[in-house]
Amino acid sequence: LSGYLMDAYQAAEEFCQMLNRRVRTAGFFKTLLLRRIGSSMSAGLSTVTKMLSEWESDSDQEEDDEPEEFNGEDDRDRPGNHSSELKTLTSAERRKLEQCKGYLETSREEDPKWNVILHYLRDEHWAEDGCILFSQYYDTAWWVAQGLVKAFPDRLVAVYAGSGKSGIFQDGRFLRRERDDIKKLVKDGEVTLLVGTDAASEGLNLQSLGTLINVDLPWNPTRLEQRKGRIQRIGQTRDTIRVLNLRYKDSVEDKVHNALSGRLDQIRKMFGQIPDVLEDVWIDIALGKKVEAEQRIDALPPQHAFDERYSRVDDVSGWDDCAKVLNAGDRIAHLSKGWKS
User: Fold this and answer.
1) For a tag site, which of 97, 185, 186, 261 has the least CB within 10 Å?
2) How many whole angstroms separate alpha carbon 262 and alpha carbon 308?
3) Are the C-beta atoms of 63 and 138 separated by less than 8 Å?
């Protein structure tokens, strides 16, 4: 990020930290703006505009397409529980949001993620192998789909989302279609560029596509694994699938990646995937709690509990010591006793 985009992101960070100092609960919801602006500048602008116009009301700020956003979260982190306190913005918080909005409006056509997406689809020929582009948010998915329509006018571009928002772009027009229809178009090879949201991805099988672009990185690590599972499954004919993860430099996602980079492979091997507990690391870093984030990372065990217990064999020097270990006559006698009724 550079110029106005960096200024916009820093303003969003400062706003979330101001909100954190005023409201001591609902950490997950207080980082909403940072999660949105970390997805795309388009989603960030949509969110900050909505906050400025509605955050003094009691209306729910989450989009209809994203009801799963809080699944598995503590009820205290749901926005409704703290709606009045959160949405009654101070004058300083409002000024910071207006500042962020101004920066985003100035540079709305300059999102660097789009240049990277286009490079891989065109120059690296990912479009020829079929590509699913995932985002947490419909705002971002729609922004990406519109860009694809302009960049690939001869291809069908589909959006796979929830709440009646799915459809295909044909001759520059968006035609709403059922999700089952889109699945069939992908399976039959008629759609090779698909943009999807996490909320709609359950049960989506995309073995006919060979590449995946994560336009944003979910703060819940399980979702990232679930996205990959859409194309890496039984029926995939390719020996190798290609995955691209996008994040802005110096963003929360980038800082978390740098903090975890030395341990990601170790953690994945130990748990089989990235554990959900690391979602709290994202929130801590978003709220400027670097020390707390590092403590959470350090609290993870250096190796699996089984390996830690059984990988080391005590050195036994001499048969005398060995006999002390093996000849546990008292233990044998105790274990030989019958069960007490």
Assistant:
1) 261
2) 20
3) yes
Nearest residue to 35 via CA among 244, 252, 289, 226: 252
Evaluate whether 113 touches 195 at the Cβ level (below 8 Å). no
d(CA 32, CA 157): 29
Give, for all 341 residues of the chain, the pLDDT tens digit.
788 999 999 999 999 889 888 887 656 667 889 889 999 999 999 999 999 998 864 334 444 444 344 333 333 334 444 556 777 889 999 999 999 999 999 987 789 999 999 999 999 999 999 999 999 999 999 999 999 999 999 999 999 998 889 999 988 899 999 999 999 999 999 999 999 998 777 778 888 899 999 999 887 777 877 888 888 877 788 888 999 999 999 888 888 777 665 555 555 555 455 555 565 665 666 666 666 666 666 666 555 444 544 455 555 555 555 555 555 666 666 667 666 55
Total residue length of the chain = 341
Dihedrals phi, psi of 162, to nearest 5 degrees: -105, 180
| Residue 138 tokens, joined | 């419909």
Please say whether the dihedral angle defined by the alpha carbons of residues 292, 298, 299 and 304, taken in this order, is positive or negative.
Answer: positive
112-250 in CATH: which number? 3.40.50.300
Q: β-pairing, 167-170 with 242-245?
A: unpaired
pTM: 0.74
- The CA R_g of the chain, rounded to the nearest whole Å, is 25
Q: Token digits for 175?
A: 């035609």
Q: Where are the domains of the chain?
A: 3-106, 112-250
- The C-alpha atoms of residue 242 and residue 209 are separated, in whole angstroms, by 10
Q: How far apart are CA 180 and CA 159, in angstroms?
A: 12
